[in-house]
Amino acid sequence: MFVLESLLDLLFPNQCLFCHSFTDSLLICSSCSKRVEQEIFVPPLCQNCGKPAYYEVKKCIFCFQQKITFEIRSLAPYTGMMKEILVHYKLGRKKKLADFLIRLSVKNYLGYFREVDFVTFIPATRRCLKERGFNPAEMLAKLIAKEVELPLVDTLFYRREPVEQKSLGFKERKENLRDVFSLKPEVHNRLSGSKLLLVDDVLTTGTTLKEACRVLKKEGKVKRIRAFTIARQL
Ligand SMILES: [Zn+2]
Ligand SMILES: [Zn+2]
């Protein structure tokens, strides 16, 4: 994957992903960056899950229906330019786009990131690691942790390989992810009573985050969880 990124850099050195003008090292020029910023969620949002609402509510219908017992915030909907950035990010132009995404995230959610004890992430499936060569969620979490000067802790692993979620309906997704995560033995004692930030790249139905939180709370005795994803499917 690093080879691919180097090759792309060689072919398109510092060219904006969208307008192809020459730019600084982040692959998105300042005027396209402003357009991306226009996609970012703005209040009123649900105070619990961060979903856009008609007015600020403590918990929205999604929270009640999905029984969301932790906070969620996402930068933007999974559409438009943000979707394109994430697709390129996962395809291998990872370092520069991760830096761009985290710069934007920190600008908007610094307070949210800081009120925790450490940062963790949704692990990658074996299939994902084979395809991409890296865990997109882990790289984002690592950069957030660095920005807010908090420890990054690798907490979860897949007990079994789930079926690819894309092909499944809501109920099947839930079934597919049931008891799929377990806590790494080495972090068992470390998590009790802590507050943590759980990072993933995209929130689709929320099933993955929910299952991860359940395990972190039940097995790890984590006190409070804040989730953060770059994009969110609405
Ligand atoms: Zn541009
Ligand atoms: Zn909500």
Properties at a glance:
single chain, 234 residues, alpha/beta, Rossmann fold, 4-stranded parallel β-sheet, two-stranded antiparallel ribbon, 10 helices, 43% helix, globular, binds zinc ion
What would you say about this model in short?
This protein is α/β, with parallel strands linked by helices.
Shape: globular
Number of domains: 1
Overall pLDDT confidence: 90
Q: Number of helix segments? A: 10
Please explain how this structure is put together.
This protein is of the alpha/beta class and 234 residues long. It has one domain: 3-Layer(aba) Sandwich (Rossmann fold). Helix content is 43%, strand content 15%. The protein is built from ten helices and six strands; from the N terminus they run αααβααβααβαβαβαβ. The strands form two sheets. The protein has a four-stranded parallel sheet, with helices on both faces. A two-stranded antiparallel ribbon has the order 3-4. α10 links the parallel β5 and β6. α4 packs across α5. The longest helix has 21 residues. The chain starts with a helix and ends with a strand. The mean pLDDT is 90. The structure holds zinc ion (2 copies). The site of one zinc ion has 8 residues, from α3.
